[in-house]
Design brief:
The chain has 365 residues and is mainly beta. It has 5 helices and 19 strands.
Length: 365
């Protein structure tokens, strides 16, 4: 009873005469997070009943970033507090106290390559700013046409790129807000499309020590529509009459929406057998515009602040789920002062498609 009375008295002291919380900035946190959560849940409801996979442009924006996140089943929206947070939850970079750079690489399916580079610089006492570059593409392929099946001597490439600028601020000692703007471009030979998008996210450190809440909405922006000289052609619209054999036409493609994605996540970290040893468990709920809802879960064991072991599973409850199990590890290769070099690896199972291997190198100064 004495303990309960002390807690009640402590709570009452933080409230004004009308029962309002007087802690700086706390009053705005609840309504803000509530509004963002409502916005997440109000995304196109058709995603709850049917799968629209393959109906969005710029699908490379759905590829997860960072070996640490991938090893934990892509459940990272409430845990992201490194340079890869610019993908998962832009609010996550707000508490980075040193200059940080990260590079992620993975050999994707059918001889395509995926790479992410992120750089973050702190804003002392306020937050951080970051730059990111995401690239996805394939090596040059020979151009083949009817009659020249071995190739014309020309080569084409397919390349996707996203350039991002992120700003994250600590509005209170527990609540952070982040916003990213992105330029997106897709190109295949002489045909291309470009557009702009925004990501928004919040990160909240709850009163329960070790528990965080994260919410983010990614890829809110303009549709992409391909155009270019490869869509120019010469046709014969009337094969029964002469004189109209060579009519120049320009094919027009339909615009396609970006893959809008809302995430809500929880993470909990607990110290085990001494300082420097932590167990972290995470879970994310995903609400996409082009697929059904799913859940990602993961865990990480950190030993001596140097070695990490990870496991996870993604896309639980997803219709037509393919694979989804992952394992990973991390190592602090070298520490110097406040800086360090880290190496991370993740193995991600994709079922009949085959496995993928993620590699990430991090530098903090």
């Amino acid at each position: 009873m004495k303990r309960w009375a002390a807690l009640r008295l402590s709570s009452d002291r933080m409230k004004g005469p009308h029962g309002h919380d007087q802690r700086p900035g706390i009053a705005m946190v609840g309504p803000f997070m509530g509004a963002l959560l409502v916005l997440c849940l109000s995304l196109p409801l058709h995603a709850q009943q049917t799968s629209n996979a393959g109906t969005s442009a710029a699908a490379f924006l759905e590829i997860g970033v960072g070996a640490r996140a991938m090893g934990m089943g892509q459940a990272f929206v409430s845990l992201a507090q490194d340079a890869t947070a610019m993908y998962w939850n832009p609010a996550g970079i707000s508490r980075i106290a040193t200059f940080e750079a990260m590079f992620t690489y993975v050999d994707w399916f059918v001889d395509t390559k995926y790479a992410f580079t992120g750089i973050v610089a702190p804003i002392p006492g306020r937050g951080a700013v970051g730059l990111s570059v995401t690239h996805f593409g394939a090596a040059a392929q020979p151009v083949r046409i009817v009659g020249q099946e071995e190739g014309t001597g020309e080569f084409y490439t397919a390349q996707d790129i996203a350039l991002g600028l992120t700003l994250a601020l600590n509005l209170t000692n527990r609540f952070s807000f982040g916003l990213s703007s992105k330029f997106i471009r897709q190109q295949i030979w002489h045909t291309s499309g470009q557009g702009f998008a925004m990501d928004v996210g919040v990160l909240y450190k709850t009163g329960l020590e070790g528990m965080n809440i994260g919410i983010s909405i990614s890829n809110f922006g303009s549709p992409l529509q391909l155009s270019g000289r490869d869509l120019l052609n010469v046709i014969d619209p009337d094969i029964l009459n002469s004189g109209v054999e060579k009519i120049r036409v320009n094919y027009e493609t339909d615009p396609f929406e970006l893959p809008l994605l809302a995430r809500f996540g929880l993470s909990y970290q607990r110290t085990l057998f001494g300082e420097g040893n932590h167990l972290t468990v995470v879970a994310d709920l995903q609400h996409p515009s082009n697929d059904t809802e799913s859940i990602n879960v993961g865990a990480e064991l950190l030993l001596m602040n140097a070695v990490s072991l990870r496991m996870g599973a993604n896309s639980l409850l997803l219709q037509d789920r393919t694979g989804g199990f992952s394992l990973g590890g991390g190592l602090v290769v070298r520490s110097f002062g406040a800086g360090q070099i880290t190496l991370d690896y993740a193995y991600v199972d994709w079922g009949f498609l085959r496995e993928l291997h993620y590699f990430t190198v991090g530098l903090a100064l």
